[in-house]
Amino acid sequence: MPRIQYFVAASLDGFIATPTDDLGWLLQFDGFEGGADSYNDFMAGVGCIVMGGETYAWLMEHEPGAWPYAGTPSYVFTHHEYRAPDGADITFVRGDVLEFVADFRRSAGDRNIWVVGGGNLAAQFADAGLLDEIILSVIPVVLGGGKPLLPMKGPTPPLQLAASRTLGRGIVELRYLLRAGTVPQP
């Protein structure tokens, strides 16, 4: 069965964006050693992408006309009316993540589901008991505030550290399992 994964980068103090959705702090690390390999290895196992409307709007603003996930079925949770870029396989949805999880699994086939972001959407999956794994790249900067990594309703049981590694420029990648019985990819 496909796993639902939150592959994300966050500042040392646990934010995925500034309060104004600025990612300059993260983009300054583009091209760090091991980053492309980590991303490419992860993407090789992804069969479906899920994201929130703010993440989609950010992508459309910063990569106009180019859909970075061509060939991968994608779902966008939003209350706004958006148009998909030409050639993109995007379904716009509204509602609870539980209503659509069967669609995500069907679209993913035997591959995994990537919750791209934001943190609020990933927290909905976690609060519903659907999130299997967090793959977190800790970026060595402190933002002091912003959009939280995973704003859940309450504390979780202890997560299981499945793997960790140091990448270039002081970035640490951590893989945590949230659900018992989840098997991480190598």
Describe what this molecule looks like in 3D:
The protein has 186 residues and is an alpha/beta fold. It has one domain (4-177): Dihydrofolate Reductase, subunit A (3-Layer(aba) Sandwich). 22% of the residues lie in helices and 29% in strands. It has five helices and ten strands. It has helices at residues 24-27, 35-43, 53-62, 101-108, 119-127; strands at residues 4-11, 15-17, 46-52, 74-77, 90-93, 112-117, 133-139, 147-148, 160-166, 172-177. It has an eight-stranded mixed β-sheet. The chain has a two-stranded antiparallel ribbon with strand order 2-8. Strand 9 (160-166) and strand 10 form a beta hairpin.
Give a short overview:
This protein has 186 residues and is of the alpha/beta class.
- Strand order, main sheet: write it out: 5-4-3-6-1-7-10-9
H-E order: EEHHEHEEHEHEEEE
**What would CATH call the class?**
Alpha Beta
Count up the domains.
1
Helix content: 10-25%
Low-confidence stretches: none
CATH hierarchy: architecture: 3-Layer(aba) Sandwich
| Major sheet size, sense and barrel closure | 8 strands, mixed
Mean pLDDT: 93
CATH 4th-level superfamily: Dihydrofolate Reductase, subunit A
Q: Kindly state the number of beta strands.
A: 10
Helical segment count:
5
CATH names the topology as: Dihydrofolate Reductase, subunit A
Question: Cα-atom Rg, whole angstroms?
Answer: 16 Å
Which of globular, elongated, flat, extended, rod-shaped describes the shape? globular
N- to C-terminal separation? 16 Å
Protein name: Bacterial bifunctional deaminase-reductase C-terminal domain-containing protein
Pfam families: RibD_C
InterPro entries: DHFR-like_dom_sf, RibDG_C, Riboflavin_Biosynth_HTPR
Domain Bacterial bifunctional deaminase-reductase C-terminal: 2-172
